[in-house]
Structures are given as structure tokens and as C-alpha cells.
Amino acid sequence: MPKKVDHEARRREIAEALWRIASTRGLDGAGLRDVAAEAGISLGRLQHYFRSKDDMLAFALRHINALADRRIRDRIEALGEEPTPRLVLRTCLVGMLPLDDRSRTGALVGAAYFVRAVHDADLRAEARNGIPHLRDFFTGQLRRAADRGELPPARATDDEAMLLISLVDGLSAYLLLEVHTPEQALRLLDLHLGQLFGGGAVSEGVRE
């Protein structure tokens, strides 16, 4: 009886082969033939799963975002039943930073996508897709903090949520460039959260 192939798992394996190439050579250096060789399959087999490089790139971007989202959700669930909004936000923000080898690879691939997406409307739309959802989640946490008296109501806005996202994007870039060490990036993140919420750094937060 022929062995049943998990096509979705094979597509994920191809996406991860693409990431390994993109993290060192950028997406322009990740041709279909290169990705097929990295994945240990023939070019024809790769084209069975993806009709074009654009299809492969879009799938890989969705997959890497899904993995990052799952990692952050797992960290939030590990906080217990009722973590404070500040701790939830910090956990999310720390999870978005490239603080270890795996998250650094993800950030390098994300940077490669960013460069390509600037000139590719379809990939740009795919890359932007998750931002409103993340903004709304952060805004919800800020409003919950305001309701609990932990944050001035005037700071519980979409704009404040976007500033948090922008802060992490900037810190991530400087981590990749080695302008900051992981410890310095975490200190700056805690400094901003302390200014936003009032008081010092979070003593119960997530540390890498």
C-alpha cells in the first residue's frame, strides 16, 4: 500500500528550507532550485507543492507568522489564569524580539521579506495582514489596564499600541545589527513600559 504523504507537512519543510537560505543569503538568493536542494527534493517535486516562487514565499510568510504567534500564545498561557495586562504585553513584546538563534533566524527572514515586500504589492499585502490584529490585541490590553486603574485612560489607544509594535521593530533591527545586546534591548523595553505604566521594570516578567 503506498505511503500516505502529509502534503501540508511537506510544504512546511520546504518553507523551512527557504528560511535557512534566506537567513544567510536573502530571498533573492533563494531560487526554486536552491530551495529544492536544501529541502532534499527534486525541483519537480517542489513545483508539485508550489506553482511559483511567489506562492512559496507567501506560504512561508504565513507559516513563520503562525509559529511566532503560537510561541507567544504558549508563553501567555504559562503565565497563569489572570496575568496583568502589563505582563501580557511584556510577554508578547519579548516574544517578538530576536533573542535566541531560532528567533534571530525568523527575524532575518522577516527582514528579507521586508526588503522584497517594499517592491512587491502581493507580498506587501501578505506582510501587512497580521498588523491590525496585533494592534487590536495590544489596544485591548491597554484598555483593560486603564479599566484596572493601572494606566491613564488617555494612553489606552490604537496609537499607543502601534508605538509598542514600532518599538519592538526598532529594537529587533538593532539586535540584528548588534547595536544592542539582548540584555540592553530588554532594559530599553522595560524602561518604556515603566514610563507607560508608571513605576519601575516588571520584576515578574519573562527573561530570556
The 3D shape can be described as elongated
CATH architectural name:
Orthogonal Bundle
Which CATH first-tier class would you pick?
Answer: Mainly Alpha
Count of discrete domains: 1
Share in β-strands = under 5%
Number of strands: 0
Order of helices and strands: HHHHHHHHHH
Amino-to-carboxy terminus distance: 48 Å
CATH level-four homologous superfamily name: Tetracycline Repressor, domain 2
What structural class is derived from the secondary structure elements?
mainly alpha
Q: Give the CATH topology.
A: Tetracycline Repressor, domain 2
Discrete helix count? 10
Low-confidence stretches: 201-208
The profile of the biggest β sheet is: none
Residues in helices, as a percent range: over 70%
Mean pLDDT: 87
What is the CA-atom radius of gyration, in angstroms?
A: 19 Å
